[in-house]
Amino acid sequence: MTMSEYSEIEAKLRTRLDDLLTRAEVIEDDLRHPLDDDWEEQAVDLADDEALEGVDDVLRAEIQQIRLALLRIKNGTYGTCAKCGNEIRKERLEARPIATRCINCASEAA
C-alpha cells in the first residue's frame, strides 16, 4: 500500500492524539494543585494523585506510540512489519493503528 492510502488512518491517529494531549493536560493541571491543610484531606489527595499519575503514564505511552506511527507514515515505513519486513494487513492497521508487527510476528511475541 502507498502512504496516501493511509490518510484515513492518519486522520484518526491525529484526532486521537489531540484528544489524549487534552486529557493529559487536564490531569497534569489537577496534579499541580496545592495540598489541603487538613491531614485527612491530604491523604485522600495524595491517593487520588497517585491514581492520576498512573492514568497519565498510560496516556503518555499511547501518545508516544501514536507519534511514532505518524512518523512511520511520514517516512514511508508505516504498514511494514518491524520484525519480518512483510506488509501489515490494512485490516490490522485499521483495528490497531499503532501496530508495528504483522499478525504472525505479533502472535509469536505473545
Automatic annotation (TrEMBL):
<feature type="domain" description="Zinc finger DksA/TraR C4-type">
    <location>
        <begin position="76"/>
        <end position="108"/>
    </location>
</feature>
<feature type="domain" description="DnaK suppressor protein-like N-terminal">
    <location>
        <begin position="11"/>
        <end position="73"/>
    </location>
</feature>
<dbReference type="InterPro" id="IPR048487">
    <property type="entry name" value="DksA-like_N"/>
</dbReference>
<keyword id="KW-0862">Zinc</keyword>
<feature type="zinc finger region" description="dksA C4-type">
    <location>
        <begin position="81"/>
        <end position="105"/>
    </location>
</feature>
<dbReference type="Pfam" id="PF21173">
    <property type="entry name" value="DksA-like_N"/>
</dbReference>
<dbReference type="GO" id="GO:0008270">
    <property type="term" value="F:zinc ion binding"/>
</dbReference>
<protein>
    <submittedName>
        <fullName>Transcriptional regulator, TraR/DksA family</fullName>
    </submittedName>
</protein>
<keyword id="KW-0479">Metal-binding</keyword>
<dbReference type="Pfam" id="PF01258">
    <property type="entry name" value="zf-dskA_traR"/>
</dbReference>
<dbReference type="InterPro" id="IPR000962">
    <property type="entry name" value="Znf_DskA_TraR"/>
</dbReference>
<keyword id="KW-0863">Zinc-finger</keyword>
